[in-house]
Amino acid sequence: MKVVVIGGTGLIGSKLVAKLNEHGHEAVPAAPNTGVNTLTGEGLAEVLSGASVVVDVSNSPSFEDDAVLEFFRTSTTNLLKAEANAGVGHHVALSVVGTERLQQSGYFRAKQAQEELIRSSGIPYSIVHATQFFEFMKSIAAAATDGDTVRLAPVKIRPVHSDDVAATVGRTAVGTPVNGVVEVAGPDTFQLDELIGKGLAARNDPRHVVTDVHAPYFGAELREDTLLPGPDANIAETRFADWLAQQ
Ligand SMILES: NC(=O)c1ccc[n+]([C@@H]2O[C@H](COP(=O)([O-])OP(=O)(O)OC[C@H]3O[C@@H](n4cnc5c(N)ncnc54)[C@H](OP(=O)(O)O)[C@@H]3O)[C@@H](O)[C@H]2O)c1
């Protein structure tokens, strides 16, 4: 089956393309440097010809509020239109656990806009909601940094390995559209401020964590369980400590 992976050169996309090809599918990576641009529409009709499934694991180059909203609105609109013209039977997108609870954040308003366009498109779809990738912990620290201080809320987080996310997205892509959300999370629950603090200390990073219940997470205030998945989530195998030991 031909599966076009939009953002197929990125962190999740490149792993997904490899996994689908290993399982005998024809996975085609699509990104600006393969000649496909969902913002301009360049190369879209050509790459979608004969595709059964499209997986969107692209991301905005800018997380600035207006830029990220413009990215997901324009790219998703162009993509869904091209899929309808090409007769694609399943649209799969990767989004984030708790997106609907994080609407104070410009990034998550953009992800919500992406999801709403998909839900109203009429194309059978599956939305995979993943928790934070292990690889994303440094970006969380960077976004919360002010000088030597990293201000974080004492909330629960259940990070997941990008390999496990790519596997879940791959299984979803070759399955029947769920016309809803599939969640995936890692096996262990941590407290965000403690986890980031330990990571900084382990790397002899001079920054220190300040615990603050009101500290924003990419612009959104968090409750203790905002970042956690529901009871039906797929729980991935790779443990954070095992992954860390291999880095
Ligand atoms: N980070 C997390 O913890 C987390 C958690 C849950 C869900 N997610 C979601 O996972 C998704 C993928 O994240 P990632 O970290 O794998 O992304 P990434 O590594 O930043 O890769 C983004 C991909 O999008 C492509 N892209 C950018 N602009 C494009 C355009 N105009 N047309 C086509 N492709 C374009 C990039 O191509 P170039 O490299 O050529 O620019 C790249 O292949 C995101 O949607 C994010 O919301 C992330």
Give the distinct bound molecules: NADP nicotinamide-adenine-dinucleotide phosphate
Give me the Rg, rounded: 18 Å
Shape category? globular
Say what the CATH topology is. Rossmann fold
Mean pLDDT: 97
Question: Helical segment tally?
Answer: 8
What is the strand tally? Answer: 12
Fraction of residues in H or I helices: 25-40%
Distance between the termini: 35 Å
**Could you name the CATH class?**
Alpha Beta
Element order: H for helix, E for strand: EHEHEHEHEHEEEHEEHEEH
Q: What is the assigned CATH homologous superfamily?
A: NAD(P)-binding Rossmann-like Domain
How would you characterize this protein structure?
With 247 residues, this protein is α/β, with parallel strands linked by helices. It has one domain (2-246): NAD(P)-binding Rossmann-like Domain (Rossmann fold, 3-Layer(aba) Sandwich). It has helices at residues 11-22, 44-48, 65-86, 106-119, 137-143, 162-173, 192-202, 240-245; strands at 2-6, 26-30, 53-56, 90-96, 125-130, 145-146, 149-152, 156-157, 181-185, 190-191, 208-211, 234-235. A hairpin with a 2-residue loop joins β6 (145-146) and β7. The chain binds NADP nicotinamide-adenine-dinucleotide phosphate (NAP). NADP nicotinamide-adenine-dinucleotide phosphate (NAP) binds next to α1 and β4.
